[in-house]
């Protein structure tokens, strides 16, 4: 689990939400997410392959995965309720 140091990311492209009548999509799916993070994915995969080859300990463990899932679920609860979520050690959705 990352405990200190900055986390940097670039802002997402601006998107506007509009309600429209249901109809078939005429444009191809947008791939900005993949292209935006392509270099990061390649770096992550290269590090994973090197870790497997060298039998090194992973940088993130199961607890990191559990905490990431809790954060994602808390974000969904916050979006649904419109209120902040106090993410205490015993919090569950």
TrEMBL record:
<protein>
    <recommendedName>
        <fullName>Gfo/Idh/MocA-like oxidoreductase C-terminal domain-containing protein</fullName>
    </recommendedName>
</protein>
<feature type="region of interest" description="Disordered">
    <location>
        <begin position="1"/>
        <end position="27"/>
    </location>
</feature>
<dbReference type="InterPro" id="IPR004104">
    <property type="entry name" value="Gfo/Idh/MocA-like_OxRdtase_C"/>
</dbReference>
<dbReference type="Pfam" id="PF02894">
    <property type="entry name" value="GFO_IDH_MocA_C"/>
</dbReference>
<feature type="domain" description="Gfo/Idh/MocA-like oxidoreductase C-terminal">
    <location>
        <begin position="29"/>
        <end position="87"/>
    </location>
</feature>
<feature type="compositionally biased region" description="Basic residues">
    <location>
        <begin position="16"/>
        <end position="25"/>
    </location>
</feature>
<feature type="compositionally biased region" description="Basic and acidic residues">
    <location>
        <begin position="1"/>
        <end position="15"/>
    </location>
</feature>
């Amino acid at each position: 689990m990352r405990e200190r140091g900055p986390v940097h990311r670039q802002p997402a492209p601006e998107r506007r939400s509009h309600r429209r009548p249901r109809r078939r999509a005429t444009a191809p799916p947008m791939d900005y997410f993949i292209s935006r993070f392509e270099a990061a994915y390649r770096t992550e995969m290269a590090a994973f392959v090197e870790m497997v080859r060298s039998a090194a300990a992973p940088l993130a463990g199961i607890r990191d995965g559990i905490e990431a899932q809790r954060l994602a679920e808390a974000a969904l609860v916050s979006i649904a309720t419109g209120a902040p979520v106090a993410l205490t050690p015993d919090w569950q959705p």
